[in-house]
Amino acid sequence: MRQPQSIDIWIHGACAAGGYGGWSYVIRDGDQWRGAAGGATRTDVEAMVLTGLASALEALAETPPTARVSLHLADPAMLEASDTQAALRARLAKALARRPAGPFPRPSPN
Question: How far is C-alpha 17 from the geometric centre of its chain's CA atoms?
Protein backbone atom coordinates (compact mmCIF):
# COMPACT_ATOMS: atom_id res chain seq x y z
CA MET A 1 0.00 0.00 0.00
CA ARG A 2 1.35 3.44 -0.96
CA GLN A 3 2.03 5.91 1.86
CA PRO A 4 -0.10 9.07 1.82
CA GLN A 5 1.64 12.13 0.50
CA SER A 6 3.33 14.17 3.24
CA ILE A 7 3.46 17.96 2.98
CA ASP A 8 5.12 20.46 5.33
CA ILE A 9 4.15 24.13 5.45
CA TRP A 10 6.16 26.83 7.22
CA ILE A 11 4.31 30.07 7.94
CA HIS A 12 5.71 33.41 9.05
CA GLY A 13 4.16 36.80 9.67
CA ALA A 14 5.68 39.99 11.01
CA CYS A 15 4.64 43.57 11.56
CA ALA A 16 6.53 46.78 12.32
CA ALA A 17 5.32 49.30 14.87
CA GLY A 18 3.96 51.55 12.12
CA GLY A 19 1.56 48.87 10.90
CA TYR A 20 3.59 47.68 7.90
CA GLY A 21 3.52 43.90 7.82
CA GLY A 22 4.45 40.91 5.75
CA TRP A 23 3.61 37.22 5.50
CA SER A 24 5.23 34.26 3.80
CA TYR A 25 4.89 30.53 3.43
CA VAL A 26 7.07 27.72 2.13
CA ILE A 27 5.61 24.37 1.11
CA ARG A 28 7.69 21.19 0.87
CA ASP A 29 5.92 18.49 -1.08
CA GLY A 30 8.33 15.57 -1.37
CA ASP A 31 11.38 16.97 -3.14
CA GLN A 32 9.53 20.00 -4.52
CA TRP A 33 9.53 23.39 -2.79
CA ARG A 34 7.35 26.43 -3.45
CA GLY A 35 6.22 29.48 -1.62
CA ALA A 36 4.79 32.97 -1.72
CA ALA A 37 4.92 36.19 0.22
CA GLY A 38 3.02 39.41 0.51
CA GLY A 39 2.41 42.39 2.71
CA ALA A 40 -0.03 45.02 3.86
CA THR A 41 -0.21 48.37 5.56
CA ARG A 42 -2.27 49.23 8.64
CA THR A 43 -2.13 45.65 9.82
CA ASP A 44 -0.87 43.53 12.70
CA VAL A 45 1.11 40.33 13.13
CA GLU A 46 -2.00 38.20 13.68
CA ALA A 47 -3.43 39.30 10.33
CA MET A 48 -0.14 38.52 8.61
CA VAL A 49 0.14 35.01 10.08
CA LEU A 50 -3.48 34.20 9.22
CA THR A 51 -3.05 35.56 5.68
CA GLY A 52 0.04 33.42 5.15
CA LEU A 53 -1.68 30.32 6.48
CA ALA A 54 -4.86 30.79 4.44
CA SER A 55 -2.78 31.47 1.31
CA ALA A 56 -0.72 28.32 1.85
CA LEU A 57 -3.78 26.14 2.36
CA GLU A 58 -5.45 27.64 -0.71
CA ALA A 59 -2.29 26.78 -2.69
CA LEU A 60 -2.94 23.10 -1.87
CA ALA A 61 -6.27 23.03 -3.71
CA GLU A 62 -5.08 20.32 -6.14
CA THR A 63 -3.46 18.15 -3.47
CA PRO A 64 -5.12 14.76 -2.83
CA PRO A 65 -7.33 14.77 0.30
CA THR A 66 -5.33 11.86 1.74
CA ALA A 67 -2.15 13.98 1.93
CA ARG A 68 -0.83 14.56 5.45
CA VAL A 69 -0.26 18.28 5.95
CA SER A 70 1.91 19.47 8.84
CA LEU A 71 2.02 23.14 9.80
CA HIS A 72 5.06 24.82 11.35
CA LEU A 73 4.49 28.20 12.96
CA ALA A 74 6.76 30.24 15.20
CA ASP A 75 3.78 30.89 17.49
CA PRO A 76 0.95 28.32 17.17
CA ALA A 77 -1.09 30.40 19.65
CA MET A 78 -1.80 32.73 16.72
CA LEU A 79 -4.35 30.17 15.57
CA GLU A 80 -6.37 30.33 18.77
CA ALA A 81 -9.70 32.10 18.55
CA SER A 82 -9.75 35.82 19.20
CA ASP A 83 -12.25 38.57 18.61
CA THR A 84 -10.13 40.16 15.91
CA GLN A 85 -9.59 39.36 12.26
CA ALA A 86 -13.07 37.92 11.62
CA ALA A 87 -12.74 38.10 7.82
CA LEU A 88 -9.34 36.34 7.86
CA ARG A 89 -10.60 33.69 10.28
CA ALA A 90 -13.56 33.03 7.93
CA ARG A 91 -11.13 32.67 5.01
CA LEU A 92 -8.99 30.31 7.07
CA ALA A 93 -12.02 28.23 8.12
CA LYS A 94 -13.02 27.88 4.46
CA ALA A 95 -9.49 26.81 3.49
CA LEU A 96 -9.33 24.31 6.38
CA ALA A 97 -12.71 22.84 5.41
CA ARG A 98 -11.21 21.94 2.03
CA ARG A 99 -7.84 20.84 3.42
CA PRO A 100 -7.58 19.67 7.03
CA ALA A 101 -4.11 20.22 8.41
CA GLY A 102 -2.24 19.60 11.63
CA PRO A 103 -0.77 18.99 14.05
CA PHE A 104 0.67 22.38 14.92
CA PRO A 105 4.18 21.47 16.10
CA ARG A 106 6.49 23.94 17.78
CA PRO A 107 9.39 24.82 15.52
CA SER A 108 12.71 23.23 16.20
CA PRO A 109 15.42 25.54 17.57
CA ASN A 110 17.56 24.97 14.45
Answer: 23
